[in-house]
Design a protein that fits this description.
Elements (H helix, E strand, L loop, with lengths): L1 H15 L11 H4 L2 H6 L7 H13 L23 E4 L3 E5 L4 E3 L5 E4 L5 E7 L2 E6 L5 E5 L5 E6 L2
Antiparallel strand pairs: 1-6, 2-5, 3-4, 4-8, 6-7, 7-8
Length: 153
């Protein structure tokens, strides 16, 4: 039971420190003191599990996983910039819980209630703008309204 609590906490702490790892990553055993390594419970991992974790951390150095409330974070405040892309497939509006797949691979979902219908458009251009308090607003070319969205992937 204790491991179930400790491991997620340890992983969150490790992942929050990723930006500090810089471009050159050494193993966790090299970066942590023996006492910290043991206190984190990492000594209980098999060599293969530890190698996998080291590799994963190295590959995801720039990933930001969660904020203080546990929600996914994809952009630091200074990285929140307006961008344009296209929706994948046909689009005719939103209905309260609509998910939007973008041609850049990102997935966003409607973050407010409400519905809006517009003419059916194939692969419409969208503009997503950062708003206050961490929210985002999506404008779809060809529609006369915008919708508050949040990134889910």
């Amino acid at each position: 039971m204790r491991i179930r609590i400790v491991v997620p906490t340890v992983l969150c702490l490790l992942l929050s420190a990723l930006p500090a790892f810089a471009q050159q990553f050494s193993s966790l055993e090299e970066r942590m003191s023996a006492a910290d390594f043991k206190a984190a419970g990492l000594d209980k991992l098999t060599p293969d599990e530890l190698r996998y974790l080291d590799g994963w951390l190295q590959a995801h150095q720039q990933t930001r996983l969660v904020n203080s409330s546990g929600k996914p974070v994809f952009y630091a405040d200074n990285e929140r910039k307006e961008f344009e892309t296209h929706l994948v497939g046909t689009f005719s509006g939103w209905s309260g819980s609509t998910q939007f797949t973008l041609n850049n691979g990102q997935v966003w979902r409607q973050a407010e209630s409400g519905a809006y219908s517009c003419p059916t458009i194939t692969n419409p251009k969208v503009t997503i703008k950062p708003m206050i308090l961490g929210s985002w607003l999506m404008y779809v070319q060809g529609c006369n309204d915008s919708v508050r969205v949040e990134r889910v992937k």
